[in-house]
Amino acid sequence: MQDLPEPATEPDGSVVVRVLSYNIRSMRDDVAALARVIRACRPDIVCVQEAPRFFRWRQAAAGLAGSCGLVYVSGGATASGPMILSSLRAHVERTEDVLLPRTPGLHQRGFTTAVLRFGRARLGVLSCHLSIDDQERYEQGRLLLDRLSALDVPYAVAAGDLNDRPDGRTFRLLANALHDGWATKPWGREHTTRLGDPLQRIDAVFVTEGVQVLGCGVPMGLPGVEERDLRAATDHLPVLAALRVPAA
């Protein structure tokens, strides 16, 4: 397996950051296995979906972050599931949680966003979990692009569970406006559904113009990421991307 670049600061002030997107199914599975997978990926940013949302959810979020050597940044119940964690490399400039228009009979959805600074590099971050309904999902895709633009930073990343495949219209909407990490620089495994399930890529990392994708995919084969942990941790596979972000 080709190595994924390590987090670093370049002489020109640009930074290499690792971004992990992971649907953790409200931590209903093996939390120790989940933490082992996250730690092995050595992320600077984790875009979580299906974070705990109910009883003592903040305690659960803080516990997960602490067990992974990370800190809580934003989201959780306040964004109806999406959450952002970060390493201590990141300085948090601002955060915002957004609840999306809801179709009666369907789950409430939301975005959580943050602007993070790594030295001289600033990066907008958005974590999302889009609807299972095609029309609602498409409208959420349009709102995602609007929200990313509203962060008003030169560089940004959006990551999450799209509930859509690359040939779906919402996935295409995002891929036409942003750069799809896997399609740009494939690394690791492509499909993000649970091992043994039908092969689908429904989780993704997208970046804006100017952010260089150095590798993106499911980190199977990465040292420390064990198949048994991936099976035990949750019902999705994580997506890990290494990105080079220019200095602002």
UniProtKB/TrEMBL annotation:
InterPro entries named in the record: Endo/exonu/phosph_ase_sf, Endo/exonuclease/phosphatase
Entry keywords, A to Z: Endonuclease, Hydrolase, Nuclease
Pfam families assigned to the protein according to its UniProt record, in alphabetical order: Exo_endo_phos (PF03372)
Entry annotated with the keyword Cell inner membrane: no
UniProt domain Endonuclease/exonuclease/phosphatase: residue ranges: 20-236
Domain of life, source organism: Bacteria
Molecular function, one GO term: endonuclease activity
Keyword Protein biosynthesis appears in the UniProt entry: no
Official protein name in the record: Endonuclease/exonuclease/phosphatase family protein
Annotated organism of origin: Streptomyces cinerochromogenes
